[in-house]
Amino acid sequence: MHRCMTEWAEEYGPIYHVRFLMIHYIVISDPVLWTHVMRSKAVDKYRFIQVYMEPMLCGKNVLTSPTDAHWRMAMDVIGLVGFNKDMGALDHHCAAAGSKRVEDDHTATLLNSTHEITERTKELLRDLKFWKQGTRDGIALLARFRGIIDSLLRHIRQKEVAKGSFADLLLSTFKHVTPEQQADKLMLPEAATLFFAGVDTSGHAATWALYLLLQHPEVEAKVAQELDALELLVTTERPTPRPLQAADLAKLPYLSCCIKETLRLYPAVGIGHFRVNFLQDLTLAGQLHIPKGGAIWLASHALHNASFNWDDPDTFLPERWEQPGTEFALPEKLKLSKEWYEGLHANLSTSGQADDSPGQDGGRPKRYMPFAEGQRDCLGQNLARTFLLATLATLLSRLTFSLGAKMGGPEGVRASEQYTIVTGLKDGMFMHAKSRSTAAG
Ligand code: HEM
């Protein structure tokens, strides 16, 4: 679907209209209009889609709620992660490799429940099909997921939590809510959402990064060089390099470029974002009039991959990020006629909504927004960036990867690529990992 949106953008241009049942969407992949919508306080999440996910995430939460008081309270909470509890993920994984079933551990339940939620967004009546084993398994899985989050909340209530941790913030935000069960009811969906929003997005982004690197040995060699310079790479002379430290992350600019380029080619939320202008009519860039209540579909794969936004959009080129300002739109490439962009700054502040603001960068339009933008951007983006850098640096310093034959080469990968909530693959990505010490020896 995300690729189809990009093809339509190439064919019909950066603005087109799509009708899905009774709903009309204005689909946008023009950077100027994207930036405008993302930063506008006159638009909000399109609730029609979000409401459907709420029961699976244990209730109203920061991801699905409109930009109201509830959302603002949760926004204050999420930012620092850590329940200060060892989930035992690796222990369980090792046990699973022996005798224990993978389904028995918490990590598998958390992962599988994000998949179950994803499946339900594809098959809207899935949970009504009781005669199907898959439905009954899915219901049991979501109940186990809820149980894990419940037990996490009990755990943080009983233990001394680390100052500034997610648990600490969560407890202090809801400490005035009584009785305790009422507060737990409010905390439950926030904790559940954190796992849901953070796991598949980051996991798939790391997978796509490894896939792109194994396809481009020259890029992987440059990453290895960067790791070697920091004495983090396994070599014949250095079979056991020092462990990665937090301070190393700022010294991996080329690997950062690889991550940015991965999120350009495979934006985690590839299909894009659904917004609605709930307050009043909206005029984008002084030209595109969207009546109040109009649905806007910001096509992120198209924004990141359309030829009218990028040179060589299909090429994996981390070097493009070495150029400062790569995330900003190139005025000479913009597809709409000039008058759309004239007086852009004026339009950003007088687009029918007094409190629209040009935002950071003085309203300079962006062609790259993997974590969205504006008041509803990704709350976990710093964590995600840190996770991706640390995980990839650790893996690549010790291992080299090749694509499993089962994938059927790049064509097979492309064919099994799928978008549900996150850009992923039908049956996962099979790769072979080889120790660098074996390769060196
Ligand atoms: C590579 C990893 C990630 C990517 C690409 C990503 C991307 C996004 C995007 C595009 C949105 C906006 C969705 C929309 O407009 O509907 C979003 C929202 C959100 N993300 Fe992430 N995300 C990532 C990782 C994480 C992590 C690790 C967490 C937390 C642990 C997280 C928590 C959230 C939350 C809570 C929201 C909802 C914010 C709101 O609606 O106000 N994300 N993310």
TrEMBL record:
<feature type="binding site" description="axial binding residue">
    <location>
        <position position="378"/>
    </location>
    <ligand>
        <name>heme</name>
    </ligand>
</feature>
<dbReference type="GO" id="GO:0020037">
    <property type="term" value="F:heme binding"/>
</dbReference>
<comment type="similarity">
    <text>Belongs to the cytochrome P450 family.</text>
</comment>
<dbReference type="Pfam" id="PF00067">
    <property type="entry name" value="p450"/>
</dbReference>
<keyword id="KW-0479">Metal-binding</keyword>
<dbReference type="InterPro" id="IPR036396">
    <property type="entry name" value="Cyt_P450_sf"/>
</dbReference>
<keyword id="KW-0408">Iron</keyword>
<dbReference type="InterPro" id="IPR001128">
    <property type="entry name" value="Cyt_P450"/>
</dbReference>
<dbReference type="GO" id="GO:0016705">
    <property type="term" value="F:oxidoreductase activity, acting on paired donors, with incorporation or reduction of molecular oxygen"/>
</dbReference>
<keyword id="KW-0349">Heme</keyword>
<feature type="region of interest" description="Disordered">
    <location>
        <begin position="348"/>
        <end position="368"/>
    </location>
</feature>
<dbReference type="GO" id="GO:0005506">
    <property type="term" value="F:iron ion binding"/>
</dbReference>
<dbReference type="InterPro" id="IPR002401">
    <property type="entry name" value="Cyt_P450_E_grp-I"/>
</dbReference>
<dbReference type="InterPro" id="IPR050121">
    <property type="entry name" value="Cytochrome_P450_monoxygenase"/>
</dbReference>
<dbReference type="GO" id="GO:0004497">
    <property type="term" value="F:monooxygenase activity"/>
</dbReference>
<protein>
    <recommendedName>
        <fullName>Cytochrome P450</fullName>
    </recommendedName>
</protein>
